[in-house]
Amino acid sequence: MARPSKYSAEFRSDAIALWRASAGRRTFKDVAADLNVNPETLRTWVRDADGRPVAVGASQDTEAELARLRAENARLAEAEKEWQLEREFLRRAAAYFVREMK
């Protein structure tokens, strides 16, 4: 059984209202410090009140950009593997020709 909260429902709703009033100008950490609560506690209260995860500044554009960057990262990692193979081939070829010239 979960222990009862030491914060009243009224305090929680006031804290949520304070954060919403200052959203965009102040962080959870700043507002929580003013209220002497843990920032994650405040974040949880806001998330529960909204019924969805709180992602400050996140949007569909952000998600699309993240997907694009992940795809680009995978492409660059594959290209790096190819470049390593080419460098190894050239290193071996150079060593071969040095031996042949001696």
Question: How would you explain this protein's 3D organization?
Answer:
- The chain is an all-alpha fold.
- The protein has two domains: 51 residues, Arc Repressor Mutant, subunit A; 45 residues.
- Helices cover 75% and strands 0% of the residues.
Layout: helices, strands, pairs:
Elements: H1 9-22, H2 28-35, H3 39-50, H4 60-101
Summarize the structure.
By secondary structure, the protein is an all-alpha fold. The protein contains four helices and no strands. The chain is rod-shaped.
Rg over CA atoms, rounded to whole Å, is 27 Å
Number of strands: 0
The CA-CA distance between the termini, in Å, is: 82 Å
Averaged pLDDT:
85
CATH class descriptor of the largest domain: Mainly Alpha
Helix content: over 70%
What would the CATH topology of the largest domain be?
A: Arc Repressor Mutant, subunit A
Biggest sheet details: none
The class by helix and strand makeup works out as: mainly alpha
CATH homologous superfamily (4th level) name of the largest domain: Homeodomain-like
Detail the poorly predicted runs: none
Query: What would the principal axes of the Cα set say about the shape?
Result: rod-shaped
Q: Mind telling me which CATH architecture of the largest domain this is? A: Orthogonal Bundle
Count of helix runs: 4
